[in-house]
């Protein structure tokens, strides 16, 4: 009878690169941490991601971008999430992101950016921490 | 008092929020469901079930596209399993539904089954209530990959599609009780693959065995069953619905129009035969029972406190008391606390 409120996470791959190995590893790690992960697959547009986040009412959106197009894609996604009234959704970015871009993304409201060396434990606890701070 | 107007007026954010409250069993959900329920009863509830990998999600994607072209709005509830160890889940049905993105006439919600057996989640019925109230014409309910016993969908949906694929089992699998029996429409998907004809043959033979005699008896027909099968095709004419068997190749969209026609025919049959009322009554009664069971258990635990419950559990564990008698004693204690 307990009220179960698992953290819901949308894991999405915006843009055109076709490498989803990392996204799948993260999805699996979040699952193993007890979260419900909605995995949307490759080549999602910012509109698709914002709409899926709305329908699924997720706490977190995780974006995997390996194409280098993060400065084009992420601000657009943040803008659409806000337009959908999803200001309380925390956004994380994984991929190869130069330091100066990390600062710029965080200034846009991104909760965290993870590079290739980040361990799944660090990512899981960052996601959980971000949701618990909001709750 | 819960304000239903955003949901009735198609606010997707409000709908998504209420679905979360329902799923999480939050106190707000009860008021929301109470207010939304009078607005339900309009949608056609279509269950889609079948073994893992038979192509349910792809078929749901194609069906939803076809239904949109025919002018209906569509909601999709896609259920995937939770891990029994961590409670986590990967909900991957949206991967096959990307064609539907950006269409305001479609709403997709993924659900983890959160430990429920039977192919659905405990709160799926209540999620369907909210989607029905929100005005979607068609609600497609996709179960977890189901084998033989995950037949809860038969109680929840008006029309049940059972999706099979070539190479998944022999003819003994097909005559076992369970999934095939609940089919209103049977589909062999991936029909471009080797073994499709054999799968169709086996399923056709098992359908011929199961119908129409069994269904006529079940329907309470007084006259003895006819020696020759009725000449009707797929439920037309006679009072008994004979599940049609269709072939599709979902990823190419082949056979989908025919499948949608069969679903519509079944819907029309439910209306003209009066069977819709029977199914609705059965469905709602089942939901009442489910909720009663939960409320009674919860109120028993509150009334008795955890002490009696744990004491009973210890006695069972020590093999001093069997579980059935322990349950009876707990209920008696609740009814007559003086004797406790």
Mean pLDDT across residues of chain B: 86
Largest sheet of chain A: 5 strands, parallel
Order of helices and strands of chain A: EHEHEHEHEH
Poorly predicted runs of chain A are none
Question: DSSP strand (E) fraction of chain A?
Answer: 15-25%
Number of helices of chain B: 12
Radius of gyration of chain B, taken over Cα atoms and rounded to an integer in Å = 22 Å
Order of helices and strands of chain B: HHHEHEEEHEHEHEHHEHHH
Please tell me what the overall shape of chain B is. globular
List the strand order in the largest sheet of chain B.
Answer: 4-2-5-1-6-7-8
> What strand order characterises the main sheet of chain A?
2-1-3-4-5
Structural class of chain B: alpha/beta
Radius of gyration of chain A: 14 Å
Question: What does the overall shape of chain A look like?
Answer: globular
Query: Main beta sheet of chain B: strand number and arrangement?
Result: 7 strands, parallel
Summarize the structure in words.
The complex is a heterodimer of chains A (135) and B (340). With 135 residues, chain A is of the alpha/beta class. Helices cover 45% and strands 18% of the residues of chain A. The two termini of chain A are 22 Å apart. By secondary structure, chain B is α/β, with parallel strands linked by helices. Chain B has 2 domains: 269 residues, Rossmann fold; 49 residues, no CATH class. Chain B is built from 12 helices and 8 strands. Chain B has a 7-stranded parallel beta sheet with strand order 4-2-5-1-6-7-8, sandwiched between helices. In chain B, strand 6, helix 7 and strand 7 form a beta-alpha-beta unit. At the A-B interface, helix 1, strand 2 and helix 2 of A face helix 2, strand 3, strand 4 and helix 11 of B.
Topology:
The complex is a heterodimer of chains A (135) and B (340).
Chain A: E1 8-12, H1 21-32, E2 36-39, H2 46-56, E3 60-65, H3 70-83, E4 90-95, H4 99-107, E5 112-114, H5 120-134
Parallel strand pairs in A: 1-2, 1-3, 3-4, 4-5
Chain B: H1 5-8, H2 12-23, H3 27-36, E1 44-49, H4 56-69, E2 74-80, E3 89-91, E4 106-112, H5 124-133, E5 138-142, H6 153-156, E6 159-164, H7 171-175, E7 185-188, H8 196-210, H9 213-218, E8 245-247, H10 256-273, H11 275-317, H12 323-335
Parallel strand pairs in B: 1-5, 1-6, 2-4, 2-5, 6-7, 7-8
Helix pairs in contact in B: 2-3, 2-5, 4-10, 11-12
């Amino acid at each position: 009878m307990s009220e179960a409120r698992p953290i819901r996470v949308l894991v999405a791959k915006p843009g055109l690169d076709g490498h989803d190995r990392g996204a799948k590893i993260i999805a699996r790690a979040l699952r193993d941490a007890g979260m419900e992960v909605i995995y949307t697959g490759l080549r999602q547009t910012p509109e698709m991601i914002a709409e899926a986040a709305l329908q699924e009412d997720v706490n977190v959106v995780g974006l995997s971008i390996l194409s280098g197009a993060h400065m084009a894609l992420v601000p657009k996604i943040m803008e659409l999430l806000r337009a959908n009234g999803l200001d309380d959704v925390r956004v994380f970015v994984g991929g190869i992101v130069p330091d100066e871009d990390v600062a710029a993304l965080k200034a846009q409201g991104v909760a965290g950016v993870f590079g290739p060396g980040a361990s799944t434990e660090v990512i899981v606890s960052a996601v959980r921490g971000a949701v618990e701070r909001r709750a | 008092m819960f304000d239903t107007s955003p949901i009735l007026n198609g606010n997707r954010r409000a709908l998504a929020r209420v679905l979360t409250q329902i799923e999480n069993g939050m106190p707000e959900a009860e008021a929301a469901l109470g207010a939304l329920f009078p607005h339900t009863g309009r949608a056609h509830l279509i269950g889609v079930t079948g073994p893992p990998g038979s192509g349910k999600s792809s078929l749901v994607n194609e069906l939803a596209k076809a239904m949109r072209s025919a002018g209906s709005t569509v909601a999709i509830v896609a259920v995937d399993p939770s891990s029994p160890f961590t409670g986590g889940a990967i909900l991957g049905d949206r991967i096959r539904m990307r064609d539907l993105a950006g269409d305001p006439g479609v709403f997709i919600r993924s659900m983890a089954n959160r430990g429920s057996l039977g192919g659905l989640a405990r709160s799926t019925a209540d999620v369907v209530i909210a989607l029905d109230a929100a005005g979607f014409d068609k609600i497609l309910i996709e179960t977890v990959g189901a084998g033989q016993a995950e037949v809860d969908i038969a109680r929840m949906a008006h029309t049940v599609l059972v999706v099979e694929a070539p190479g998944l089992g022999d003819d003994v699998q097909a005559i076992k009780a369970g999934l095939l029996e609940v089919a209103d429409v049977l589909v062999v998907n991936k029909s471009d693959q080797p073994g499709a004809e054999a799968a169709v043959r086996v399923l056709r033979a098992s359908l011929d065995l199961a119908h129409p005699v069994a269904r006529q008896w079940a329907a309470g027909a007084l006259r003895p069953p006819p020696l020759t099968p009725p000449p009707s095709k797929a439920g037309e004419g006679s009072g008994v619905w004979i599940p049609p068997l269709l072939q599709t190749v979902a990823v190419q969209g082949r056979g989908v129009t025919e499948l949608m026609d069969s679903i519509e025919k079944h819907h029309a049959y439910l209306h003209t035969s009066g069977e819709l009322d029977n199914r609705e009554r059965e469905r709602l009664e089942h939901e009442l029972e489910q909720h009663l069971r939960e409320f009674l258990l919860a109120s028993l635990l509150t009334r008795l406190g955890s002490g009696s419950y744990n004491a009973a559990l210890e006695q069972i564990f020590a093999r001093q008391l069997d579980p059935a008698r322990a349950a009876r004693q707990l209920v008696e204690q609740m009814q007559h606390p003086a004797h406790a």
